[in-house]
Design brief:
Layout: H1 6-18, E1 48-62, E2 70-84, E3 87-98, E4 101-104, E5 107-110, E6 113-125, E7 128-145, E8 148-166, E9 171-187, E10 192-208
Antiparallel strand pairs: 1-2, 1-10, 2-3, 3-6, 4-5, 5-7, 6-7, 7-8, 8-9, 9-10
Length: 209
């Protein structure tokens, strides 16, 4: 399956931002005012805690193995933003169930779940925010062959870009691309080190308290 570059993902996100209608631009910071730092009273506030869900599709490669697991992933995320004028800083954590798997000859590899804890830095234009994100990733890689199975949970890293759109005072929607690298570990059934590296495009919604 063809890889999607970070440049292409960024272009997609910028195009989505340009397509946002002016209707949401009139939204005020409303009930989230206590979390806002140095934000105009008539501006949309990104500050404060939030909780949401997401659904996306991931594709990647297993190192030292010909399998290329891909599939749908979905989960929940939670985070907190601080805002100073148009600059938005935050931290976000997520946990995902993942259907990515692939079989090649006697080998089958899958990534049943993964998660991340990331920093975010963004630039807000009223109710539209563009951001970059990166941090710690973790998850499980499972290998199977000839009726034998072996699983390893490892940590790694992730980076990505995204755009989030304010729909109401409390509800936002986002589109996001992440590249995730789960570090390799020794698999007895393969006799080599195997890890999982993959790209993920996902859509999500957040409720801001």
């Amino acid at each position: 399956m063809a890889r999607i570059s970070c440049g292409a993902a960024t272009a997609l996100i910028m195009a989505a931002g340009l397509a946002t209608t002016a209707q949401a631009a009139d939204l005020s910071y409303g009930a989230r005012g206590p979390y806002t730092v140095n934000q105009p009273l008539n501006g949309y506030s990104w500050a404060g805690p939030y909780l949401g869900g997401n659904l996306g599709y991931g594709w990647g490669d297993v190192s030292n193995n010909p399998t290329r697991p891909s599939g749908f992933a979905g989960g929940i995320q939670a985070g907190y933003n601080w805002q100073n004028g148009p600059l938005v800083f935050g931290i976000e954590g997520d946990i995902q169930a993942n259907g990515a798997d692939d079989t090649f000859a006697p080998w089958k590899f899958s990534n049943p779940w993964f998660g991340s804890v990331r920093g975010r830095i963004g630039y807000a234009v009223n109710n539209v925010m563009f951001y970059g994100t990166g941090g710690l990733a973790f998850g499980e890689l499972r290998g199977e062959t000839f009726g034998l199975s072996e699983s390893h949970s490892t940590a790694g890293w992730t980076v990505g870009v995204g755009a989030e759109f304010g729909l109401t005072q409390n509800w936002t929607a986002k589109i996001e691309y992440l590249y995730v690298d789960l570090s390799s570990s020794n698999f007895t059934i393969t006799g080599v080190q195997n890890g999982y590296q993959f790209g993920l495009v996902r859509l999500g919604v957040n409720y801001h308290f």
